[in-house]
Design goal:
Elements (H helix, E strand, L loop, with lengths): L2 H9 L5 H11 L4 H17 L3 H13 L3 H13 L7 H10 L5 H13 L7 H10 L5 H14 L6 H10 L5 H14 L6 H10 L5 H14 L6 H10 L5 H15 L5 H13 L3 H17 L3 H10 L5 H14 L6 H11 L5 H10 L7 H12 L8 H14 L2 H9 L9 H10 L5 H18 L2 H10 L5 H14 L6 H11 L4 H14 L6 H10 L5 H14 L6 H11 L6
InterPro entries: ARM-like, ARM-type_fold, Armadillo, HEAT_type_2, PBS_lyase_HEAT
GO molecular function: oxidoreductase activity
Length: about 575
Amino acid sequence: MTASRVRGMIGGKVVTNTIVDMLMNALSNGDDSVSDTAIDALDEISETAPTIELINTLVKILHNKHHELIQDRAKQCLKHIGIITATEEVIRALVELLRDEDIGIKNCACTALAAIDLKEATEEVIAVFVELLYDEDPDIRKCACAVLKNLGEKAATDDVISVLAESLRYEDVSVRKCACAVLKNIGEKAVTDDIISALVEALHDEDPGIRKCACAFLENIGEKAPNEKVIGALLVVLQDKSLDIRYDASRALGNIAVKATSEKMLDGLLEAMKDAYSYSDRYTPLTVLEKIAKNAPTKEVIDVFVKALTIYDRQVRSRACKAIGDIGEKAATKEVIDALIVTLQDCSVTADAVKALERLGINMASKYVIDALVEALENVDIHSDPRGICKAIDYIGEKAGSKEAEVCAVLGQIGEKAATKEVINALVLALRDSESELRVAAYTALGQIAKKAATKEMISVLLEALRDTKSDIRASLCTALGQIGEKAATKEVINVLLEALRDTDSCVKRAACTALGQIGEKAATNEVINALILALRDTKSDLRESVCTTLGQIGEKVVTKEVINALVEALRDTDSC
């Protein structure tokens, strides 16, 4: 039969035992061209119409050690074998090839085994591969693993699962890896107490790949593994060196939490956040807690988020506020509200705490909230930062619809206790903040404290701060000194305001001028009067107008020939006072 005739029959799918036998005989022909044609035909069969007989033929070729070229072509044929259903006999024949000393033959056999469709595999066939998981040859174990993975749920027999549980504890890491991979593909049907116990041990495996695989499996089975041993082991894995493994452990805990959330889990997640070195490490346990809160917002879960408000990580505190807000009025206990009010004082998350309180149904302008903020500002010390309180008070005023009046009303409650060096320094610091709302709140606070409870210490801090390079801050501080009034009428204060009256910035000069007028007659020194007369010639009309007002406030001491002449001159200025 010619080669073309053979190919034609193959093309028409007419592949019989007779044809395969004929091609096998042709391989033994002394004519190389005949042998080549035969192997070409076998190769084509392997790609288009593979049969059990073909596999048997190729196995015989490889065992009979034909010419090297034919051996190579036979190997190629094996690799090209399509997806077919194999008998136990063929599988065992291919398995036997896995033990061949020739690495090429072993690889081809493994490729062929992996390609065979084992959906109809019998328990006897499956048992062959389970047995191979313990083979001394790592390549054979690897091949057996690949085949069992392809079996999927079909491999979920009691014998296979029992062997896989043992394999997870096997001393050879490659065997443990194989077992993990097979279990992952089998899925929920592999869940037994023995498997769970073995997976808990695998979570502590020295090999990161096995730890990751164990986490992934526990994630997939989720609700079926809610026991304390699993939870405890996964909590430990949250500290794993590998970020990927920590994520996997987090997801596994999240799935388990759907069915069962224990105190141990909540405490462990909280500790994991506290012990973490960075936000990326805190992200995973925090995500689990958020998932738990969504499904089961119990008091214990809420308590964990309240504790998270104190963790030294802005993003964690922000997300804790959001989680509490998402829970809603169910979380509106005194303990939670008080914790959020304390969090208001943290300027980095003030807005988040405000939103949380509002979602809990709390009126931010209520006496309870305002009293708490006032008390907090009164108790500021060197270790605290009242900028958050200022932002919160500022927000209250804004929500009330009359921002300035509301903020002033709140700050008007603040007594002498608030006029400390620490509070004033912090408010001066807030004047430098990039947020305009915070600067306004700090400015208002300084003015209100200055009106009600000015102390020598406060005046000293304000004078020191007047050296600031920013003109708007210098102007604000001059205004604060003016609001103190006669109490600020010291030689040092007047000299500083006199210097400010000569400032290059017109706003600073105007603020200094107004402050001198508020201090009154005690500010009427010759130096001040001369400086005010000079300021009447300034190009800025609003400054000239302010000088006129100040001269009127200072009183009779300014009634000198020079002042009168300057005022007469100012009367000729259509833009002046």
